[in-house]
Each structure stands twice: as C-alpha cells, then as structure tokens.
Design goal:
Radius of gyration: 36 Å
Largest sheet: none
Number of strands: 0
Organism: Roseomonas mucosa
Shape: rod-shaped
Number of helices: 3
Number of domains: 2
Strand content: under 5%
Protein name: Transposase
Distance between the termini: 108 Å
Mean pLDDT: 81
InterPro entries: Homeodomain-like_sf
C-alpha cells in the first residue's frame, strides 16, 4: 500500500499504529491497537516549597501578633475589673 501511494513503509506503519481500533479501511485486516501515549509527568499540586516557607513565616508573625493582642486584652480586663470593684 505504501508503494502505491509513494510513501515510505515506516510512515504508513506509524499511521496504522495511531489509527482507531477496529478494521483498517479497505484492507479487511484488523487495525493495530492505538498505543497509549506516555503519561505526562505528575504536576505539583499546591504551593511550591518557597511559597510554603513564606506562608509559614507570615503565619508565625500573625500568631505572635495575636498573642500580644490577647495579653493586652487580658491585662485590660484585669484593670477594668479592678476599677469596677472600687465603685
């Protein structure tokens, strides 16, 4: 068939490998199974290590700020609680 079309044999064979399964058109012979292309490398899902490190740093600073605010509010509650007891 390749010679009739003036094509290299290997080109026709590669077409047949990629042809849908079933019967090859006009040949009466079953077509070759479609090879599964190689799987793409797994993509990283989520942030990169550098992004994770930046997020951890930001969260640590936020925790420190929240602890400071909590301590200030605790002291304020004690002070205001003492002030209301005096009245």
């Amino acid at each position: 068939m390749a010679a009739e079309l003036g094509l290299p044999d290997r080109l026709v064979r590669s077409w047949l490998r990629w042809a849908p399964t079933g019967t090859a058109v006009g040949s009466g012979a079953p077509a070759l199974a479609v090879p599964t292309p190689p799987a793409a490398p797994a993509r990283r899902v989520g942030p990169s290590p550098a992004e994770q490190a930046a997020e951890i740093g930001r969260l640590r600073r936020e925790v420190e700020r929240l602890r400071m605010e909590r301590d200030i509010l605790k002291r304020a509650a004690l002070i205001f609680g003492q002030a209301t007891d005096r009245r």
